[in-house]
Amino acid sequence: MENKYIQNVSVIKALSDVNRMMIVDMLSCGELCACEILEKFQITQPTLSHHMKILCSCGLVKFRKEGKMTMYTLNQETVKNLETFIHDIISNTDDCICK
To answer: Are 8 and 81 in contact (CB under 8 A)?
Structure first.
């Protein structure tokens, strides 16, 4: 049972930063390159790279190289798993920890 908590803690930790939450919100609209993300923030490119590394490391964001550009998208499988997890922990389900 503890496994479902362990699997989701890194994603939730990654979302504990306002900039990373905003980046995820931006990526919910579709694939973006780093330069498009950077335009919306008052941060440096190394700071953006740090945030993207955290989002990619937990599996919430995927990336691909396109020439010199790095393109980012949400990992829909991780998003769906997180949605299910959040629903499960705020609902009275058969596998609730209280039972």
So the answer is: yes
84: three-class secondary structure by DSSP? helix
On whether the CB atoms of residues 55 and 61 are closer than 8 A, the answer is yes
What are phi and psi for residue 82, nearest 5 degrees?
Answer: -65, -45
User: For residue 29, which amino acid is it?
Assistant: C
The answer to whether the beta carbons of residues 15 and 24 sit under 8 Å apart is yes
Pick from 96, 54, 62: nearest CA to 79: 62
Give the number of other CB atoms < 10 A from CB of residue 48. Answer: 17
Q: Over 60: is that where the pLDDT of 1 sits?
A: no
pTM score, whole prediction: 0.90
In whole angstroms, what is the distance from residue 43 CA to residue 45 CA? 7
